[in-house]
Amino acid sequence: MKLSVYHYKTELISSQKMGAVTRVTSMGTLVVFGFLKGFQPIAGFSYGAKKFDRLREAIKTSILWSSIFCVVVGLLMVLFSTQIISQFANGNVDMIAVGEKSLMANGFSFFLFGFYTVYSSLFLALGKGTAGFILGACRQGICFVPVILILPLIWGMNGILYAQPIADVISAIITAFMALHLRKELAEAEALIGLEKANK
Q1: CA distance 29 to 131
Q2: How much is the pLDDT for 60?
Q3: Distances (CA, A) of 47 to 153, 160, 186
Q4: pTM of this prediction?
Q5: Do 56 and 88 contact (CB within 8 A), yes or no?
Q6: Distance (Å, rounded) from C-alpha 57 to C-alpha 63?
Q7: DSSP secondary structure string for all residues of the chain
Q8: How many whole angstroms separate alpha carbon 61 and alpha carbon 35?
Q9: What percentage of the chain exceeds 90 in pLDDT?
Q10: Which residues contact 143 (CB under 8 A, 6 or more apart)?
Q11: Is the pLDDT of residue 42 over 60?
């Protein structure tokens, strides 16, 4: 009986905590998504017009400013995790303790959000729908689902707390490999355009 009550209490606190953390992080993610709505048409037009220098500048600028924003928001989550979670906890000490750990971890992993979201939007803007879909589904699907299913079996409550940050890191690693491949593709396309112009 005591074990059942403990598990029920753990699951309740965990679900409340995840709801609070999700609401806080969504405020940052929505700002980044809004920023990328302006980036996508610029990237798509530059790619279609074969203006690779403008495309590179757009990618560089988008990654820079979205990453700066994500680092600032992530640091606020880390530094003020207790105060932020307290606004959702109604004085529940257990929820504050659990939520604080989770928000701190999500704050650190939020540093990477701008990087992989820019590339997810970029692939879609360039007409590479499959790659864009994969990156878009990584954070809360392809990477998150296996982690949230397996990690709690190994790590208990901590497996739930750190599932999203771990999925974020895996998503960023996948993005880095795909970004390197894309850079190679763009360099080859630019070289081909330059060769065609030279032969005219």
Answers
A1: 20
A2: 94
A3: 46, 41, 9
A4: 0.84
A5: no
A6: 10
A7: -HHHHHHHHHHHHHHHHHHHHHHHHHHHHHHHHHHHHHHHHHHHHHHHTT-HHHHHHHHHHHHHHHHHHHHHHHHHHHHTHHHHHHHHHTT-HHHHHHHHHHHHHHHHHGGGHHHHHHHHHHHHHTT-HHHHHHHHHIIIIITHHHHHHHHHHHHTHHHHHTHHHHHHHHHHHHHHHHHHHHHHHHHHHHHHHHHHHHH-
A8: 11
A9: 56
A10: 167, 170, 171, 174
A11: yes
Neighbours of 31 (CB within 10 A): 14
CA distance 123 to 181: 12
Residue identified by tokens 């989550």 is 77
Place of tokens 């992993």: 109
